[in-house]
Amino acid sequence: MRAQDEGFVIDSPVLPTELEALPSLAEQAGFPVSGLLATHGDWDHLLGRLAFPEASLGVGEPTLARLGREPEAAQRGLREFDDELYVDGRGALALGDVQGLPLPGRLALGNANAAELELHAADGHTADGTAFWLPWLGVLVCGDYLSPVEIPRVSQDGSPAAYAATLERLAPLVEAAATVVPGHGTPLPGDRARRLLDEDAAYLEALIAEGDAPLPHGRDGPAQLRAHTQNLERRA
What we know:
Distance between the termini: 37 Å
Order of helices and strands: EEHEHEHHEEEEEHEEHH
Structural class: alpha/beta
Largest sheet: 6 strands, mixed
Number of strands: 11
CATH architecture of the largest domain: 4-Layer Sandwich
Radius of gyration: 18 Å
CATH superfamily of the largest domain: Ribonuclease Z/Hydroxyacylglutathione hydrolase-like
Strand content: 15-25%
Number of helices: 7
Shape: globular
């Protein structure tokens, strides 16, 4: 995300080779990395700090509170991932100072406040969450929502009802968006994101009503069936 002479990295890639390549890719593209933003406090969205250790990190206030309650959770999640995939030699994840941003809210970017980034509450997947709307680009960065490869996934501290409410809040932004960038899967054109939002809303409505809640077509493989089983346990 860029506005004139300011550029922010939102969330992060995961693998060491991707993170190592990120600074040089940004430099080659003439993209000035002024800071980092994260949509929520899951470890795989916080690794920008490994690529840009000196950059400031901004998160929604609920995420700041979560990181304060769980200071070791991100490092523990990263270590478990690396152990499972035999990733060796990665350093510790030190988040350092983190700035809390109000939700809903706005963040002025660029010289003379050339653009304003909008922050919208996006809880439900987890108890925290922020979606970033870039109106001058028509881009919505929504974290772990509207994924073309995952069904709505409710974490242990999440809520199906809150997830459904987030989709309702995001609906007008998705309607206006040219591109939606989910946390998992490829960026989506607006029309595809709108179809996913309708599918996910229908799935959650059935889940909350304790109905059959069939999985959306194309997102009904074994991994998504396991996620669905977890969602059934958390729909109360």
